[in-house]
Amino acid sequence: MELFFELEIVYLVIGVFILVVTAVVTTRDFMPKVAFSRGMIMVTMFLTTMISIHYYMTTTRMDGVKDIFNNGETVICENKMRRSVSRSVLLSKELGWRLEGDKFRNDDYERDFHTSRCIEFDGIVPK
Question: Are 75 and 118 in contact (CB under 8 A)?
Fold first, then answer.
């Protein structure tokens, strides 16, 4: 459950905001009396479905990245820290990276990378 909140907290907050907007709009005088209950149910079901799909896709990709890394291949991770230098970082065991839980760590690098922000490196260097 901790991983779910770590990955989806932003989307949960956005979902709560959307539900508040839905509640305000569906309780206006010009809306039918059943608008609130139907609107809240429909919007809640939609948000639950979308957040669940996002979580499933992200954790599936994370498992794939872990398998690829553990097999000795290279993965590429998003670098949000230094946008001016490079937007991605290549990680492999050969370069001294290790996998601890869901994070890639290297003693020579000041920052860790979460597996949710990584994909398989196909050998094509992005520009």
Answer: yes
Dihedral-angle region of residue 72 (phi above 0 means left; psi in -120 to 50 means alpha; beta otherwise)? left
103: which 2 tokens?
């994070």
Helix (H) or strand (E) holding 6: helix 2-26
- CA atoms of 120 and 23, how far apart (whole Å): 42
Contact 109, 122 (CB under 8 A): no
Per-residue pLDDT tens for 109-124? Answer: 888 889 998 988 877 6
Provide the whole-model pTM. Answer: 0.83
* DSSP label at residue 97: -
Strand partners, 121: none
